[in-house]
Design goal:
This protein is mainly β. Helices cover 0% and strands 55% of the residues. It is built from no helices and 50 strands. A hairpin with a 5-residue loop joins β40 and β41.
Length: 622
Amino acid sequence: MLYNFRPFLLGSFVIALLSGCGASSISETSGSAAAPVVAAPPAPNLSKPGAVDFGSTSSSGSADSVVATGSVGGTVSASIGTSRAVSVNFASSDGLPITGFALSGTTLPPGWSGPSSFECASLGRGSGCVLNLSFAPTAAGGGTLTLNYVFTDNANMPRAPGGSVTIPYMASIDNNVIADISAAGQVTALTHSGSRSISIAFVTDDGNAATNLLVTSDLSSLPLGWTSSSGSFACAIVSTGNGCRLNLMFAPTAATSGSLNLGYRYTADSGTTKSGILSIPFAATSDDTVVATTTPAGEITATAKAGARTVLVAFTTDDGATATNLSVTSDLTALPAGWSAAGAGFSCKTVGSGSGCELPLRYAPTTLTSGTMSLNYAFSDSNAAARTGTVTLAYAATSNDMVVASASPSGQINAVVGQGSQDLEVTFTTDDNRDATNLQITSDLSALPPGWTTNAPGFGCFGLGREFTCQMTLNYAPVAAANGTLPVSYAYLNDSGEYKSGTLDIAYRATTHDNVRGTPTPTALNIASGTSATVAVVFSTDDGNAATSLAITGGLDSLPTGWSAAAGALSCATVSAGTPCSLSLTYSPLAAASGSLTLTFAYLDDSGAAKTSSVDIPFISY
């Protein structure tokens, strides 16, 4: 199941919706039937780990917009065989009426159900236009539900495409946490002869993550001879080979036997609270026993396809007495994938304390696997009695993965000054779906460029990768025209435990709804017939920011008598305070006349909106 790691500081936020279109209908898919292809525009992802709801979303425009708010925060999750209700409320962003709202071209994924069509005649603020859906999965898996819609804004402008809402979801079967004990079978030790270390690795049976593991037994009140370094034990995350390991010591002072039972509880990947019990049979004897220890200790890890790791298994007696005729009875030519030994067998004539009886093994994984390997051995104790033992090695292949950051929406972030704000989702994932941990933002989130803010200045994620998502929200609400790049730098530990870092560069631009003005020089003409005068019309923007695609749309093709302009007299790709654009006109009257020359022109303002205007030049000839 997909677990959303909540940022250290949480909050709700608003995301700007982009446009989407289609007919007012919702269809459902079931089984493996192919869903119809729906042309939908790019839209921000509304999945917000740690937020209260899906988020609020807006499609920008010169008038008002639609705001969509979901009833479930982050990813909608459900176990197979259960059902979960999800609602999405649609309202007007400014409370003014929006009409003709309808879902269009939306196909429900398998497991989702809802009305066959959905529309609302009018939207206001909290208008009660609510779409009710149900998520009742029948198979494990996940995906994203996209709801596309159209509407007419308060300025009576049709918005088709109008917007889309994306809802991530995940269905899973309950998994279980199991305990892998480093000593297979009964744990034995000799009285008054040192201690024996026992390692218990908690893992899940399917490799998916479980959380909130807690050993419920009192570790300060263990059976005689058993000790723990602390009175309690817990792990925030449990998965295959994740290092959730409890270490115990067995140092008996008297002959005894019994079973050490430890209870634990956890949250399965579906969110269900479950419990389990592990049992370790033990015995303390007065005869010596051969014990095996590994170097390195604990779980053996190696990076897949990146060399090999040597592991030594040392055999010694627990009381320093001499045991004889030790032999490994397991077939060393049939070890798990990635493991190898120098020969098919291994033996030592004598075993004692520091006797040098060591079995060298090689671990060179080529695939990302994990598990345990048990080696059986036989020996004769100091009283010549035949004895056996087992050593178990936990192992995992790791990857030299990297965390990559992506922004939604992608590309340059554009916003209009004084026209609301633009939300941005930054999602952190690993490049191979393996795990990474301890992600921290190293950029100073309290010193962002003007207009940029975040609701989590101390953002970080404990884990991300196969079963975890890690997302951060930024907001851009510019108060002045600007452009630049916002770098988001981060650091983390990858699957192999290596410290790495990365940076996501976010390009942004703030634009304005500026206006182009035409200024004639001189502003009016009063000349004698038979003479000539030139008028220069200079076009510039009123705020100094750019405008583009300036063109004269009227007046040049029907100039008053005596007026003329050179062909192609105006050709300006960009107009701004620093890049003026001029049109030169000539007035050469032959007779007395008076009037006004009017030129109309069109352009695209700094935000890309189409606009028109005009300039008048009064004239008199005598």
